[in-house]
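Subject: Transglutaminase-like domain-containing protein structure
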Amino acid sequence: MVTRVLRRAVVPVALAGMLMLAGAALGGIYADSLLFRLVAGAAIGSVAVGVAARRLPSWTVAPISAALLGGYAALALYLAAGDGGLTFTVARDALANGIPRLLTAMIPIEATPDTVIIAVGAVWVAGLAATEIAVRGGRVLLGCLPPALVYAGALYVVGPNASAATAYTLTFAGLVVAALASTSVTGAKTHAAVRARALGGAAAGLAVVLGLIAATGPWVAGRVTATPVDPRRYVQPPRVDSLDESPLNRISGWALDPTQQLLEFRPGFVPAAAPSAPSKKPAQPEVRLRLAVLSDYDGVTWRVGGIYRNAGRVLPVPTTPAGAQVSESQQQITITGLTGRLLPAVPTPTRITGARVAYDAATGTLIRPEGLSDGLRYTAISQTQTPDLNLLPIAEVPSGDAWVRYLKVGQNTPKQIEGLAEHLAEGYSAAYDRAVVIEQFLAEHYRHVADAPSGHAYPNLAHFLFGRRDLGGQKGTSEQFAAAYALLARLTGLPSRVVVGFTAPAAGGAVTAGDALAWPEVYFDGVGWVAFDPMPKSDTVRPVEEDYTPPKPTPPPSPSDTPAPTAEESSAPPSAAVAAPATGGASTVLVASGASGGVVFVLVGVAFAVVALRSAQRRRRLTFGDPAQRITGAWLEFTDALRLAGHPVPSHLSATEAAGHASVLPPPPKRTGLLRRAVPVTPPAPPTGPLTPVAAAPDPAPDPAPDPAPDPAPLPPLDALVDAINTAGFAPEAADAGQADRAGEQVVTYSSALRARGNWWQRMLWNVRPGPLRWNRAPGGKSPR
């Protein structure tokens, strides 16, 4: 009797064990063992309910099991919620977003309501189905299918993010064999026909298993050394807007209102200082909060370029270089004015509580997908690495495909900047020496000003490095210093990146917009990322020309330029067609007249075509596309108008500066009376003889005073265009149709007023010049960023 009971218990125990193995395999990518405990409870509970209800009518099992599943799911959500507490909103969000949260979660995954509920529910349903098929229906082999599907799903979700589950898989196969073997055992008193059927069924089941092994064995053997597919690559991670992708653009804006409070910083205990080069000034009683790490540069914008994965409270622990000291710190941060999605923290955070975050493991950048809001409070625990800086003088920099990202620059790098990089690297073979030289050069030759315009594209950095001081060159905010350093470092072979963050008082307190800072970092083998400080150390700086004179850029030759004729060409005899006397004068005149008429006809046709094309171009720019595209079209119309007037917008100016440049254009030259009246000149009388005095010719009457021309009317304002182009450049999704309409109307009014200031022939040529048809791709036609 006891033996029979034990034999009957083999199948339920085997089914529960298979489901528990699925939980063990899936738990390999979780931060703790809570998921495995919850899955084990679901496996045991679902199988036990099925066994207990095996003698009840089959239609009653599903409702009973569903009710018990609801109760167990509530318990699982409560345990996973932890200190945060379980609310109806949390439970509803977990049920609605469990699958995408699981597939976009950062490894290791924290056991939270939205990352455990799917696994618990799937195991419970599989256990119920397996018990009904194997225990009630007696089809053990078919009953093993639901646990096998759950186990395969667990392996697929884990992908390449955990070690191979070889032991779990062999144990799973052993449980299947045990369940099948238990059903084939028959007692001695069993009827011969029953024993025959049992043995036949076991033989058939064994044959099926062997057939599956033979069919799938070669494929499985070929996949043993292959890397599993990660399903996370098929799921779209959280996205950020342009300001969060490149917060470096916000430095200048913050600098204009330095007293604006952005957040409150409260340390749990004072963290260690961030690693920096030995040449730095003494450490100040302050802590650096990292907002974003910008690793990608295309010649226009430094960007994070991150792939954010939803993370729980636990974040990946950063890799520690050999010999580096690691200190742990805790900080509490309250948002009081900071906007966007980026979350500041002391680098590098390993645990976040109080906010649901997404994390880019490559850069260590944190975001809150829902966005920041005033009053948001969270606590971060960070690990700060202090490497052995004594290794820097002999440290090398890494190379290979993994570091191409940190050495890549945009196309068409200005020759001036390349020349400066070569000049600074000349004579320095050690990587650290090159890094220090770049830092010292920027600190000694450039001035820090809070109101410098934003921008770190090639034209902006060229103006910062080589521009005239009286025109705003050679000065900037930490944006230009950090961006210029990182670019020069990459051009000299140093893997570099730009970090945006804040300086906070070490004892805690308010962090304002004036505390925003950008700094560069360089990576050294065996040391890690090291921060450098290219900001000036004093108010006295030397002109760049004292130590380096950049070569002047050579403009490309104009297609209209033709070489001067040589002496041989000038002395060559005229052609026969020119030297021969004309014959048949009447016919020649008729031919010439016809040719001239054809030329005039062609010129008039071309003029009308240009006018039509330019009209269509303006209509397309100002009326087609979304608001951001129409605003960009209005900016192109504005820059084209200034080029037609002979006052093109310099490429380094921002939108505000370009509007100021356009509002102070010099008036056209005034017409005087010198062109209206010819003054007769009396030639001297011929001599009448030797020593005969000649009467002096009387002085001509003085020219009357020119008629004063009235001063031209002031040009229309461009404030709507400036606001629109700034919106389109930094937050294109915020631009609306009304803003685009106002920008277009203002540009048309300004262009008409600018055209009216010219002479009659300038006004006539304004509409027939084909230049705007090809200027829209020229550097001067681009909108400022």
